[in-house]
């Protein structure tokens, strides 16, 4: 039996260095920090308040409005949160979870097992489960023996890390607010919603009934949405804000040199050239496969991210068990190989250029990568147009799959490999870009094999290898590089920065020195 018993949940604010020496000093202790109003600049308007919509644009609010069942330390060790302990059955076909007592939702509703059951039900619904739905694929059913216990049964033996990832991904929602959670948050988190001015700002206040002792430290949390990284950096330098969250790598390097604190967490993202294989020339597999060689990964990493990160040809961080460095060499930038595949496609020059590249104009790196891709395609005789959208307009188009191709980051790249299917472009069911039925059944089968590989090391490795082969063969998403997301650039008066496994913004430990 695998069991983790009750212990104090405490994550340090240690800043981990990325590819560049960005780590700052250890923060002051909570006892030394003062409250007040924390002003944070962000570069994206959030999609909605649904914790199962774990998109990058929501990273700044998730851990401030909600709590997970368990948390991970920056190095991946599980710790209690709303779950105080959990027991994985010897056959790995179920897990029993004990829930924390004395916790209430923002509405005043006591947190009990019914909330977890309602959250599981929502997550298992292909229309409502969003990013959680694919993670629920291993779940058979669930029950609540009492108000403080939930038992989750699996369809087959599941790897321990996959079970823990599920518990970490489950963020309980107040049953009373589950139907309106997109517009009204319904969590147990350290802050509650005061006001939202779409495209401009979001104001939260400290939850007076929060269950973690002496948290949150600051009483008011104000997020200001900036359309450009440069504008957010200027606001920090002028003293108009205290922190820039999820800004660009280049700005972080410059501000670090100017004396600002810069914190880089462990939860890197992978940038992916997302292809809508149901449209135009992208319906042709050879045409899509050519992009495995048309992506100038080295230039994209250097220009887009100041060299901070690593070139990759698969959607995994090096910490992932499915990571295979050989693919990066095999599918390196090679115009001659790309030309052969383009010729093999049988498409005419007019057909090859009959599409547009959607660009996130609010993100400097995305603009740079798109321009590099446009220049590379011109070299092989495919002139294309860039369609630039800003802020919420781009986010809406991307989440709805309203594009031919676009660059967009994916997360969960350091966790159990099938978690990649929580990302929009990689969903196996209810994929907003590729729709249902999924046009790449080999990929759907490969994900299922990974989920079912609970046997020996050889079976697991074979499942990972098969998934990797399918990903590059189907080529509906072409990774370019890993990079730092959720970079925190803070003034010297800020202390108590806590790093999150997924680089979500955790405000409850932050205060003023």
From TrEMBL:
The keyword Signal applies. Residues 78-413 form the Solute-binding protein family domain. One of its GO terms (cellular component) is ATP-binding cassette (ABC) transporter complex. This is Peptide ABC transporter substrate-binding protein. Pfam families: SBP_bac_5. Residues 1-30 form the signal peptide. GO terms for molecular function: peptide transmembrane transporter activity. It comes from Bosea thiooxidans. Keywords: Signal, Transport. The keyword Signal applies. Gene3D superfamilies: Dipeptide-binding Protein, Domain 3, Periplasmic binding protein-like II. Transmembrane segments: none annotated. Belongs to the bacterial solute-binding protein 5 family. GO terms for biological process: peptide transport. It comes from the Bacteria. It is found in: Periplasm.
